[in-house]
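Got a spare moment? Tell me how you read both lines of this record:
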Amino acid sequence: DPNNPLGLSIMAGELLGRGDIEQGLEFHRRAVAADPLHITNLGNMSIYLRMTGRLDEAEFYALKAMEVAPTSAIGAASLGYVRLLQGRAQEALDLVSAFPEERPGVQGDGYLFMVAMARHTLGDARGSDGALETYRDRYAADFPMHIAYLHAWRGEADLAFKWLDEAMAQDGGDIEVLSFMDPFLFSLHGDPRWQAITARWPEVDEWPEPPAP
C-alpha cells in the first residue's frame, strides 16, 4: 500500500538519514496525512523539521501533537525544542516540568536534556551543570550525539567536538547526516573542525545555517 503510514515513515527516515531532506520530509508529511492522529508520527514530523531548521512548521506539528495527545511526552518535548530555538527557554522548561525525569521522552531522558539547555539559556549555570552531569552519567554510552548537542548549546566547542568524535566512532560509517544538521550544533559552524565533519557527506548540497543576526 503506497499510503501505508508505517511504510512511509520508514522510507522518510531512510531518506533523511542519508541527507535527502526534501524527499524525506515529503514522505513523512504523507505518513502524517495518512494517519493524522498518530502521535509518534506527529512528534517525529516536528523533530525532523526542527532538525532541518524549519521552525515554523516544526512548531505547527508539535502543537498538533499536543492537541492530539496532551499527556504525551513527545509532544511537550518537540515543542520545547522549538521554544528553545525561538529563544523562549522558560516556556521550554515549563513544558517539560509536567513530565518527571523518571518518565523518558525522546533523546534519552527528554526532561534532563531540556533542563540542561533551558537552564543554561536562563543563566542558571548550576542547574544546567547538574542536569548535564546526570544526563551524561546515565546516557553517555547510548547518546553521545546528544551530549555533543548539550555542550554545543552551552558554547563548549572542545567538549562538543569530543562527543561528536565519540558518536562517529561509535556508529562507524553509518551515522546519519541528519544528526549533524540540527540547529543545536549551529554554534560550531564557524570552527574549522566543523568543515572536516561536513566533508564526510559531499553529496549534501545544502546545510542548514544559523539565521543572520
The mean pLDDT is 89. The two ends are 46 Å apart (CA to CA). The chain is about 65% helix and 0% strand. Residues 16 and 22 are 8 Å apart (CA to CA).
